[in-house]
Amino acid sequence: MNPSVESFAPALPLVAALVVGLLVGVLIAWLINRRLLANRLELFAREQEAQQQAATHAWQLREQQAQHQLAQLQAQLSDARAVLERVQQQSEQQRQQLDEARRALAAAQEKNEQLDETKLALQTSREDNARLRSQQAELNTRLEGERKNFEEQLSLLKTAKTELTREFENLANKIFEQKQQQFS
Fold first, then answer.
1. If you write DSSP's letter for every residue of 110-156 in order, what string do you get?
2. How many CA within 13 A on the CB side of residue 52?
3. Reduced to 3 states, what is the DSSP secondary structure of residue 11?
4. DSSP 3-state helix, strand, coil percentages of the chain (rounded to 5)?
């Protein structure tokens, strides 16, 4: 054997122990490092999962909000459609009322024209009536005058008749007396 190797012989188990210790240290460090790396990876995975869950939760929350907003918008749209339908119905009713009012106005204008014609005819009738009353008053005055005249003439005739009757009686009596005298 080599003297230099022999001098290292007692140190060989020490070196071997040192190499084994170093290897065990490296192995332990590697295992610890691997364990730390695995923990870090697991922690990172948990963080990623938590972030993904938070993102999913945020997405679900946004989706719920969007669905809620959609439901509100649909309700508003439904309300707006109902209001639009009511407005259209009211518009149709007002259009019908306007048509009826136009027809009533046309009828009223026609009646107004007839009324104007009737007023003109009434005015003409009133003028004719006034003229006829004036003529009637004149005729009544003339009639009254003639009646008085006839009454006077009748009175004169009665008086004349009475006188004629008396004269006739007188004359008849005279004739009778003369005849009696002639007869006697």
1. HHHHHHHHHHHHHHHHHHHHHHHHHHHHHHHHHHHHHHHHHHHHHHH
2. 6
3. helix
4. 95, 0, 5
The SS3 call for residue 59 is helix
Determine the length of the chain: 184
Please tell me the distance from the alpha carbon of residue 17 to that of residue 19, in angstroms, as a whole number: 5
The pTM for the full model equals 0.39
Token output for 5: 């190797």
CB within 8 Å of 15: residues ≥ 6 apart: 8
Specify the amino acid at residue 177.
Answer: E
pLDDT by residue for the chain (184 residues), tens only, comes to 565 656 666 777 878 888 888 888 888 888 888 888 888 888 888 888 888 888 888 889 899 999 999 999 999 999 999 999 999 999 999 999 999 999 999 999 999 999 999 999 999 999 999 999 999 999 999 999 999 998 898 888 888 888 888 888 888 888 888 888 887 7
Beta strands in the chain (DSSP E): none
